[in-house]
Structures are given as structure tokens and as C-alpha cells.
What we know:
The chain starts with a strand and ends with a helix. Helix content is 20%, strand content 27%. It is α+β, with helices and mostly antiparallel strands. The strands form 3 sheets. Strands 5, 6, 7, 8, 9, 12, 13, 14 and 15 form a 9-stranded mixed β-sheet that branches. It has a 4-stranded antiparallel β-sheet with strand order 1-4-2-3.
Amino acid sequence: MKLVVDKENLRIDKYLAEETEYSRETITKMLKENYIKINGKTIKPSYKTKLNDIVEINEDYVKELNIEPVKMELNIVYEDEDIMVIDKPSGLVVHPGNGNHDNTLVNGLKYYTEELSDLGGSERVGIVHRLDKDTSGLMLVCKSNKAHEILAEDFKYKRVYREYYALLIGRFPSNTAFIDAPIGRSKTNFNKMEVRSDGKPARTNLKVLKRYKDYTLVSLVLETGRTHQIRVHMAYIGYPVYNDPVYQNKKTTEFGQFLHSKVIRFTHPITKKVLEFESDLPKYFQDFIDKLD
């Protein structure tokens, strides 16, 4: 894999974690073991990027990783020989990284089946897109490389419809809203994203479903797929997602943000049939809003 650097003065490990599908931990190991070169030379993880640096990534490293299968209950909504639709619970990390190599969706998928796409490397088998750890709901998994390749293009060119439900803190005044605010990595906290003028385009459509005394239940449709996009945009407009441990300042529970991937609609990569699936809110989420009534 080759990349041309388009941002300067960033640590190379941070930059590549944002620009590729690899975790920062994996990138650091690849750098130390000379699987990544800049302008033909080996460099340290602390190397600061320069515009137009040529990054060469030897992807043989991820093929050597040993991600162990782990038995877990998977809520499989749909499955055929090419794809799966999974209803992910809140609290489940999608793929290994940041020291978690044993209790992720990828571990569970590897236990369930050996038929998973490997275009994302061995640490992300089957994964064509992701949900945050504490975001629940529907996500696609690819079993064949052909399906992965086609769906990756569909995600890239906005041909996959994704609708989320979120509970926001505060009573949102308008019935609809369109948030068009670029998102980039925080300069002060690598684990956070933020709205910034030099970020990547990020667009979110909001529709109010129900207002409560101190909260608003909303539907959110993404036009782009930036990391933490909904959570960042909602905090940016002053109505953060309830119970978000990162982007709101109140005490939170272990459940994490009240954000749920409710609907996904896409064209099957092989059969070309349009498929649509809908997921119920998690019980903890539903019970909470029931009490608000």
C-alpha cells in the first residue's frame, strides 16, 4: 500500500491510524519492525509528517497476526454466502486494537465462521465499516472479498443508507437540522475528534422524533462517515448525546452513549437486490425513554 501525505507536522503513527484501517498500536509495531517506510527509509513512530511524503506499507505484517477465535453470542439478522448483518450490542468493540485482542466482534466472527473477507487484514476480517464500542445496532460484515470490495465502494460513494436514533441532552428547538461541519483529530487529545476548519467534510441530517422535558429523541442520517461523527456534531451544536463518556461533561454509566444504528439499507453486492433491516432499541435505552414519559 502506498500513501501520499496530505498533512504536515503530525506524528506518523497518529496520522496513519487516522488515514488507514490499522489501529495505532498495529502501526507502531509495523514501524518498529520496519514494515513501514517513508520516502524509502525506515522511521520512528515519533517522525513528523511532511507534505507529499511517500508512505509505503508492507501489509505482510497484518497477515502474520494471530487473532484468536472466541465463542460469543452473535445476533445475526441476515446471512448468506457473501455477507452478514449483525445487530451489535453496546459495549462490544468491533476489531482488535488498543490492547484489546480477545473480546472483539472480530474474535467472535472468527469463531463463528472461517469464511470472512480479509481485505482489511487479519485484525479486521469481515469488517467493511464499524460502529463505536458503545454504539449499538446494525452493521454489515463481509464473508467474501468480492462483496467487501463492492460494499467498500458503496460506503465510499454514499450508496449505503444508515439511520441512527440518539437521545440528546436538552430540548432541540427545530424539527429538522442539517449539520455541515468538517471533523478532524483533536490537537490536544488523540482519542477525541473535533470540528475544525482543516478537517474532512462531515454532514449529518437530523429529525426530531420526540421531545421530553430535558431530552430529545432524534433520527440521524449520515451523508459521510467520519469517526465519532454524530457524537461530535451533536456536542458541537450544543445538544450532546446522552451518557456519552467522551463528548459530554456529565457522569455516565457503563452503557455508554445512547446512540443506536436503527436502519441500514443497501444493494446486495452480488445479487443486486435492495435489502433493508431495522433494529429495536436496546432494552436499557428503551426503558430509559419509557420512564421519561
